[in-house]
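The protein record quoted in full:
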Amino acid sequence: MNYKILLFVLFALLVHGCNNTDKLLHEDEHEEAVIQITAYSSEFELFAEADSFVLGHKSNILSHFSKLPKFTALEAGSITIRLIVNGNEVSQTLGKPTRKGIYSFDLVPKTGGKGKLIFDIKTENGNSIISVPDIIVYSSENDAQEAAKESVLSRTNTTVFTKEQSWKIDFETQLAKTEPFGHIIKTTGQIQSAQGDERLVSANTHGVIVISDNNLLEGSKVSKGQVLFSISASSLADNNSIVRFKEAQNNLEKAKSDYERLKELAEDKIVSNSKVLEAKNNYDNAKLLYDNLSKNLSNSGYGVVCTENGFVKQIYVQNGEYVETGQPLLLISKNTSLLITADVQQKYASILGDIVGANIRTMHDDCTYTLKQLNGKVISFGRSANQDNFLIPVNLQIDKNENFLPGSFVELYLKTATNDQALTIPKTALIEEQGSYFVFVQVTPELFEKREVTLGVTDGSKYEIIEGISKNERIVTKGANIIKLAQATGTLDAHSGHVH
C-alpha cells in the first residue's frame, strides 16, 4: 500500500513538473513576443515593453518615463503616443500616468512597414519629444514572432533591476566617454589662510593686558572698530601712561594759554610775530601729543581696536600679562580666501607649468571638489627644491568654504593640460570585490550586466578605463551597490511590478 502511494506521489510530481515546464516554455514564448524600447531626450528616459506590432492587432506599450538627470519617476503630465508608418498615423493620449511613472498605451496599427514612434510629453515645466525610429509593423503574427526571437537579448551575468526599484533609490546612469586626461599628480596639501587675508593686532603702548570680554576666544567673530583689549599702566611706577597723559594735558593747556596771550599782545604790537609763531608751534606740538595719548584712552587704560572684520584665529596673550609697545596680541583672519600648500616630487618638475586644474578631496567626509567649483587658481610653484624635504612646493588659492578648515589636510589631484584622450567613468560607478573592480553596464534600463574593468590613473572623481567597456556604453554611476545586493539575493522576475 505504501509502495503504491509512493508511486502515485512520484507520478503527480512528474506531471506537475511537466506542466511547469510547459508553462515556463509558454512564458518564454510570451517574452520573446515582447519588444523592448529604450530612448532618451534631454529631459527624459523612456523604457517601454511592447507587444510586437502586427497589422490590425492591438499592441500594448507599457512605458516608463524617468526625469533626467536624477532618473526619478514622472508623476504627472499628459503624453500622446503616435505610430507613424508610411505617412499614416495612429495615436492615443493619456492625461495622467496609469501608475507613478508608468503610462500604458494601446495602439492598433493600420499600415504595415517600417515607421517610428513619437511620444509628445506635456508637463508643467514645458513640452518634450522622444522619437523612436525603426519600428516595424508586421503583416502577420508569425513574422512578428520570428523577428522577436532574433532580437532576444543575452542575459549572461546580468541582473534585473526594475524601474520601480530604481525610482526608490539614488540612481543614475551615464555614457562612458572619451575626454582629455593628462598627467595626474597626487599629493597631500594643507589648508592655510591666504596671504593678505590675516591681520596681526599689536600693542599700541606698554602696560598690563585687561580682557573685559569673556567671549573673546579663538574663533570669535570680531568687527572693525571693536575694542578687543585694554592696556593699563596705572599701576606702574615708571613710565605710567596715565601720568604721561595728565602731563600732556597740562602742557597743552599751558601752551594754548601762552599762544592766545601772545596773539593778543601781537595785535597791540607789544611782541614780535616770531614770538607768536614760536608759541603756536609749541601749542600744535602739545596738541599732537595729547591727541595721540588720548586716542582710545578710557578709565581702564588704552583700548586695542580691531582693524578688520573677521574671526580671531589666535590669541597670543593672557589677561594680566605685561606687554611692550608693538608686541603681537592676536591674529585676525578675514576668512574670505584660503591657501592650499602642497609638495610634489622632483620628477614632476617639467610639467608643473602645465597644471590647469585640480581636484580636492576632503578627508573627513570623502567629498571631492574641483578647483573651478571653489573659484580657485594655481598661484605659484617652486623653481627649486625645498632644502628640508627636497620636494617642490605648489600653492593654490580657493574661496572660503565651510568644509575646508585652516590647518587641516586634503588630498590633491593636480591635473595637467594634454591632447591625449582617455575613456573615463565616475568613481561612484566602481564596485570592488577582492581587489578586482567591476561596473554594471546597462543592457536595457531594467537589465544590467556586471563587467570587470581594468583601471588606469584617477583624478579623484573619475577613473581612466584601460579595458572592460567601450565608448558610449551606458553604465550605472549611482546605485551600483544596490544592484549588487539585488544580484546577491537572486535574479528577479523581469516583469516584477509590471502590468501588461
Q: What stands out?
A: DSSP finds six helices and 34 strands in the chain.
